[in-house]
Amino acid sequence: MKSPCGYCNLFYALRREDGMGGTDGTGSGDDTGSTQGTGSTDGTGSANSTEGTGSTDGRGSGHGPAGGTEHLTMERVGATLVLTLNRPEAKNALSLPMLVGLYDGWVAADADDDVRSIVLTGAGGTFCAGMDLKALAGKGMAGQQYRDRLRADPDLHWKAMLRHHRPRKPVIAAVEGHCVAGGTEILQGTDIRVAGEGATFGLFEVKRGLFPIGGSTVRLARQIPHTHALEMLLTGRPYPAAEAERIGLIGHVVPDGTALDKALEIAERINACGPLAVEAVKASVYETAEMTETDGLKAELARGWPIFDTADAKEGSRAFAEKRPPVYRRA
Predict the structure, then answer these.
(1) Residue 326 per-residue DSSP state
(2) What is the pTM of this model?
(3) Given 70, 75, 205, 279, which residue is catalytic?
(4) Which of 159, 177, 78 is nearest to 121 (CA)?
């Protein structure tokens, strides 16, 4: 899938090992994130790196590390896998270690039945300021294993950005500070969105003569009203959190510094529900989105009826009758 976008061409150049790439920092409107990555060279973030710290009922209090890369941390908080974009010196601009870590995080969450939800956030009071062309070109950063991963899977960066990869577990975004360009594109791949009141959103690509090819011209107008989507895409202006909430891009605005707390609160509510039911509901919403109502209702029945025959469904009804919390076992 080739594209005319500068950073997309860069990915193809990396796979050709010809070293092409820009050095003008990220795609954000304020030219942030040009700092070079200096992390370790052994962070591979394998998909089996999670630790099962949650209890079987999805409400465990376990809290511990679970893997990642030098620019992406994974941590289990009960039954939630928290993925943190961890390059605060560059406003969490996207780098190869970050993209590889993100993809491995999505895979790890779906592979671990003890994980019931995912929270995506950023370190240092920032979510993500977009692409860092210098880091993606490997300038000043050792990381051949990440370049090898990219060559082995030409779509890895798109999957990492949730362009055409959808985890089966619910994904909650906890946004502080900048969430622009590539950050806003990743945001559109999440299911529930919380932001601190000082957060900023926007798709700045047109201001640089570029194209927001992470899915925004397809998804944004399906997620917010048409007029707001086109204004955001065509003006390249920043949107404060209050306006982003008003137009429906995010669902909650909370005091700065508390977005992660609110996201974990929502995740805990999801984790207390039947995991088979939660995943089937999410799948049904997305698979029927572009169907006619008639076709969608048929698909909903095909997806939903089997849930009623599960042991978890019987446990939910029994627990309600017995006035106790249900213990779901994904069965």
Answers:
(1) -
(2) 0.82
(3) 205
(4) 177
Q: Decide if 287 is catalytic.
A: no
- Contacts (Cβ under 8 Å, ≥6 apart) of 68: 43, 45, 49, 74, 83, 84, 86, 101, 104, 105
Helix 216-223 and helix 226-235, axial crossing angle in degrees, nearest 10: 140
Q: What is the dihedral of CA 33, 42, 66, 260, to 10 degrees?
A: 0
Do residues 204 and 29 touch, judged by C-beta distance below 8 A? yes
How far is it, in rounded angstroms, from Cα 17 to Cα 311? 52
Given CA atoms 312, 318, 321, 327 in this order, what sign does their dihedral have?
A: negative
Given 70, 75, 185, 279, the catalytic residue: 185
Write the pLDDT tens digit of every residue in 90-130: 999 998 899 999 999 999 999 999 999 999 999 999 999 99
Which tokens hold the place of 126?
A: 């920032």
